Amino acid sequence: MMYAKGRTTVAGRFSALYLAILSAGTEILLAQPTAILPAEIPLDVAAIYQPLEPAASYGDTTEDIIDQMVRNHYSHIGFDDAFSSRMLDSYIESLDGGRMYFTQADINDFAQYRTELDDLLQDGDVDAGFRIFNIYNERLIERLVYSIKRVEVDQSDFDFTADESLEIDRSDVAWAADHAALEDLWRRQVKSALLSLKLTDKTMSEVRELLGKRFRSQLSQVLRSNNLDVYQRYMDAMTMTFDPHTQYYAPRAAENFNMSMRLSLEGIGAVLTTEDEYTKVVSVVTGGPADKTGQLHPEDRIVGVAQGDNAFVDVVGWRVDDVVDLVRGEKGSTVRLNVLPEGSGLETKVINITRDTVKLEDSSAKSEIVEVDYNGAIHKIGVIELPTFYIDFEALQRRDPDYRSSSRDVALLLDELKTQNVEGVVIDLRGNGGGSLSEANELVGLFVKRGPTVQVKDADGEISVLGNPDSDTSYDGPLAVLVNRLSASASEIFAGAIQDYQRGVILGSQTFGKGTVQELIPMDDGQIKITRSKFYRISGESTQHKGVMPNIFFPDLYEVSDDIGESALPTALPWDTIEPNFYRPYTDLRLIVPTLGSRHESRMQSDPDFLCIRAEIDKVKEDQADNLLTLNEAKLLEERKVRDEWRLTLENQRRAAKGMEPLADTKALDAEAESSDEVALEAGAADGVEATSAEDADAAEDKKKEPDPYLVESGRVLMDMIGLQGNTLAVVRP
After folding, report:
1. Spatial CA neighbour of 140 closest among 34, 327, 277, 8
2. Which residues carry out catalysis?
3. pLDDT (tens digit, 9 = 90+) per residue, 67-115?
4. How is the chain split into domains, by residue range?
5. SS3 state at 284
6. 515: which of 138, 186, 375, 714 lies 20 to 30 Å off by Cα?
């Protein structure tokens, strides 16, 4: 059995070797107790900085890793000067992507390794990686000591009336010319942190105390770094130079990685990584506790963690393993996260999450009937939401006739929908990060009679074909598949097959673009996850990098992020093609897709929900174009006021167009946003958001009752298709 997976963790059992797991960074889910050093850490860099050195065993392990990469990686990339150059850039980026610690002189110094790393690594020599890290680590300590002194010792006030700013995205700025330039950057970073907390109505004394604790906590975490941390990071830079999904796991990391894949831990259901000084959300487990809140999203940054009603622990600068340790906890307990949403600048939000064990049932297929107003009449459209492609592999192995799988569950749901006389079916794969490849193949067979489904090309160039030998189908009526940027891997295989057969219409946005398969190989010291194969559609097109392009595009907020999708990963394998496999399309949807698209666009011109979505997209793009965060208090307050007024005006325009009562203020708007979770109104007081009036509560309740605009529009597209093709889309083939 092969598995295909994107950013969203799969609920299901993994077979022995085949995995396709997206690693978008150093995603090492370790668990060790947090040990904060005493508050009396000496503020003397020379006294507390200790360079780290590689262990003697790292040489042999490195040679073993290289041997696996050379023999088994799909790309057959050689260890040469070009590889060395790319690895050096990758390693520097992983340490200082925000360009806050290295100077241009450092970068010039590191250039001595540009064509040497390949030779050194093949000899088992990792000294260069440790030397570069030690310079970074010393600078990080210098920065934290400086910051502590600015808020604890140097009590001079910052001038919040000055017209200063800070770059939000520093990935493309020039390296600091010298240490003085670094210190000025650090000063503005401290000022930004002070201002952010000052705007939460804290006194300056409280702000300084809180920041002092934060910086000391960060420093204590930095001082806990060990040589294995450095080695893991250096090996990540090497393996991910091959592709972003190949990664070495040291023994402890391997143990925790395997545990996370079993989904047996009790927690919130999210994959975390470290980016700069923040703990960033890589993915949210579909059906898990965090997912059920609807408030935690990929690219969000966690800045604080609190247990129940206790005070927040500031986790900026913490190791990801220590943050994970805080977030995990007993089933039924509550954790609160203080989160910086992507693109929010300095504004945070608090999310309440009740911990639970992630279960297969939480990610199982679910159905509903959406009533669609089309040409003045109400039509019933069946919707099947499939969060992941799952299978209870253990039950299958013991020959349990009632084993659970996504294809079995969807078949039952289709039977139920047919008894309710739905006029069409939408398979909702939004956020589906993949799962079992065999299940994707089986699911295609519910809609497509006998034929190939996907091609898999291995590292030796051998191509195998998976398909459906069965001539029976579960549903032959009008079909649409709804996808978005987080639909990955097995989702892309299913959507691609449906599109190639022209069995149904694909709606939504470009999918993730993960078209590779990883194999987990045990080693004497840890294990390596290595890319061994690539997926190809039956048309011969790869799903890698490009993903699946929908027949009809729906606007989506994910499209404004440059950090989501395979194309955002610099070492992603390229899109390519192989020979197509023989298949016979069901019909020629190309004849009607232009008409479907024009009717869709016509509706978009007046649809209140999509007009609102498009306005939000344009606003985010506008905000992204301004890469400067003002450090002037009055200007920042005015920007927030203008943004809040814009949000309120936009929402009330949408509500007016739909015949709903307007919201009185942004407080009511925030209460409405919180109501997306069924228990959000009860949790509002803890979140700092209260629906203090009956009007606010009614507005929030109205929001909960609104149908999903993407599903409604999908239903309308299906009705258009029925009108153009008749009640049965599938043409019976010989």
Report:
1. 277
2. 489, 500, 514
3. 999 999 999 888 899 999 999 999 999 999 999 999 999 999 999 999 9
4. 23-242, 266-357, 361-517+536-586
5. strand
6. 714
